[in-house]
Amino acid sequence: MTTTYAGTPVVLDDEGFFADPDQWTEAMAPEIAKEHAIDELTDRHWKVLTFMRAEYAEKGTGPTVRVLGKASGVSVKELYQLFPKGPAKTAAKIAGIPKPKGCI
């Protein structure tokens, strides 16, 4: 399916993840976040989103919640506060990367 963020059309898969992470821009993140009931992206949100994109660039998949909690500098408890609908899936969507392996 195709949708538009920050005035740019992007292709999403059936679950709403970016089909091509290269289409994502930082300007899109606040719009995507609002779709997931996150009204404002704080520095802590951006720390997670930046980590997600770096992990994807390095490993070809986004990190699991466990890896996020250990390596991002944001605790698992805080991850669930920042991304209440599920940190790995929600952060991956906002960060413009495909669904992380291990996500149901």
TrEMBL record:
SUPFAM superfamilies: DsrC, the gamma subunit of dissimilatory sulfite reductase (SSF69721). It comes from the Bacteria. It is found in: Cytoplasm. The active site is at C103. Keywords: Cytoplasm. GO terms for biological process: tRNA wobble position uridine thiolation. One of its GO terms (molecular function) is sulfur carrier activity. It holds the Pfam family DsrC. One of its GO terms (cellular component) is cytoplasm. The keyword Transmembrane does not apply. The keyword Cytoplasm applies. Belongs to the DsrC/TusE family. This is TusE/DsrC/DsvC family sulfur relay protein. It comes from Streptomyces xinghaiensis.
